[in-house]
Amino acid sequence: MCKKINTPYTVHHTPNTLLLSIIVPVYNAERYLEECLRSLFVQDIPVDAYEVIAVDNGSRDGSAAIIKQLQNEYTNLRLVTLVENQLPSGARNAGMDAAKGKYLMFVDSDDYLYPNVLQSLVDAIEKDDLDFVHFDADLLVDNKIVKGLRTDSAVVLSGVDYYHLNPCYKEVSWSKIYRRSFIEKNHLRCVKGLLYEDDEFSYRLYSLASHVKHINIVPYVFRQHANSATKRNATLAALLSHLREINVLYDDIHGANPIVTDTIMVEEIETFIKNLIWEIYRIYHILTQEEQKQAKIQMRKQITRRMLPYISKKRFILLMLGVIK
């Protein structure tokens, strides 16, 4: 499902009210950060209509200095500082907690926006009173723009129905603008301690949303890196994050008050859980002996027998790791 696009209507900004909060999680991002932030100020809505919240997530490089320097140029750039790194989930939550805009948007610190795209996005979510509006992106590969996947334009749908259309970039946080009152009403925050917070957050997001639409413009440029995430995140921290995510996903579909009940989405989560188990197994065998001991302790605590129906095909993995007998 993929194509291209336009937008007609215009929202008029009322002075002293914030239309939009753009949240930029930042961790050791000095290489691309200035390019990212400057792109957020070459836009077509008034400066006093939006804010950019850069969340310094315990960076140990020059990221904070770059943000402070740019604050001398841009009055609507705010800095939120987390002394210790709280993983991407913590940075996103801190940004949402600090936000004052009617709408929210995430931009990753190594990506950027095309000029003059914010008005069309705000117009779209405002016109149809949406919980969130979804859009596509281009890719930046070896410093060259590559046309990314495109999603066909859609009518207003529930989140679950829209999810069934399998839109491009549906799992990532940056592919949407959200109504902040919808986020707050449903207490939507990223689960703490997850390296890959987008997936679990997205399942809840689509399950709770009643008014969702795709807009056929491409405002966002996603930078693809050559270094493999698979190699980069083969760590004990990644393994523990996957354990935590398995438990959270399980509760989303089988907890006391399950949030995700759609059959197709439940099946996808079950598959996702199985994939996480495989990834845990792969990472485990790369760890040092001391790290393996720590991993086993946490596995015994966190992987419970209630989860075995999901992972019965992978049971031998748990047996090999000594987590169950």
Task: Summarize this structure briefly.
The chain has 325 residues and is an alpha/beta fold. The chain has 13 helices and eleven strands. It starts with 19 loop residues before the first strand and ends with a helix.
CATH superfamily of the largest domain: Spore Coat Polysaccharide Biosynthesis Protein SpsA, Chain A
- From the 3D structure, determine the CATH topology of the largest domain: Spore Coat Polysaccharide Biosynthesis Protein SpsA, Chain A
The CATH architecture category of the largest domain equals: Alpha-Beta Complex
Task: Estimate what percentage of residues fall within beta strands.
Answer: 15-25%
Cα gyration radius (Å) = 20 Å
Query: What are the segments in which pLDDT stays under 50 over at least 5 consecutive residues?
Result: 1-13, 227-231
Silhouette: globular
* Most strands sheet: 7 strands, mixed
Order of helices and strands: EHEHEHEEHEEEHEHHEEHHHHHH
